[in-house]
Amino acid sequence: MNYHQFSPNCTLTNYIDAYWTARGDEKDLTTEKILPDGCIDIIFNLGENRRTDDNGFTMKNEEVYLVGTMARCKKTIMTSETNLLGIRFKPAAFSAFYRFNSLHEVTDQIVQLDKSFLPDIQKVRTDPTLYLNQFFIDKLLKPKHNLFKVIDDILKHKGQINLQVLALNHFSSIRQLERDFKKYVGISPKEFINLVRFQFALSVIKNNSLNRSLLDIAFECGYYDHSHLTNEVKRYKGISPSQL
């Protein structure tokens, strides 16, 4: 797979993580693993109709799709005809551009979107970065939530923060955080905390130049023991830590 990503205009960097493109290589068929990251993506299928996974969901040519927040690792099928362009929104930032009922309704799902509310696919083909920057700057709204500081707090603690403490730090309740996270992020605050902790643990495992034991890494990253960490790696990555 040939994957490239591009930074948005500085006006959008608090809300859009990146624009990205993914094209299949010369091989007829490859399978790629996509890891959960707490983000929502809008994807334009600029290539031929493509089956996205073993479940048989098909992205149609020149249609646009919303990929909900992922709760676990997924496999996607890439062919030589694959040609995708995506917009990856930061956690809780989708509401800065679109109003909706709840992102929890599309967690782990791919949904075809009404193109009348979206960037023009032909203009996306011509000059994607310049056009998308202007489109989303014009569409930028004030989010109806206060989750960005909460999310920053979780990231600062690398996912090692108690939910009750988090609520107290931000003058909220656990129940309110549950409602807001499911509506604006797509997963619960506990699930998001677990995901951030896993991302930190994964970086430590991959950069383990001192050959520390998995138990030591587990304790550093806030897991009960190495079995707890192993189960989380299998859940989010689809393989055991020894296979990383």
Quickly describe the structure.
With 244 residues, the protein is α+β, with helices and mostly antiparallel strands. 34% of the residues lie in helices and 20% in strands. A hairpin with a 6-residue loop joins strand 5 and strand 6 (58-59).
Topology:
Blueprint: E1 2-6, E2 16-23, E3 29-34, E4 40-45, E5 50-51, E6 58-59, E7 64-67, E8 74-79, E9 83-89, E10 110-112, H1 121-126, H2 128-139, H3 147-156, H4 163-169, H5 174-184, H6 189-206, H7 214-220, H8 226-237
Antiparallel strand pairs: 1-2, 2-9, 3-8, 4-7, 4-9, 5-6, 7-10
Give me the number of helical elements: 8
Strand order of the largest sheet: 1-2-9-4-7-10
According to CATH, what is the class of the largest domain? Mainly Beta
The named CATH superfamily of the largest domain = Jelly Rolls
CATH 2nd-level architecture of the largest domain? Sandwich
Name the beta content range: 15-25%
**What is the overall pLDDT average?**
91
Attribute tags:
244 residues; alpha+beta; Jelly Rolls; Arc Repressor Mutant, subunit A; 2 domains; two-stranded antiparallel ribbon; 8 helices; 10 strands
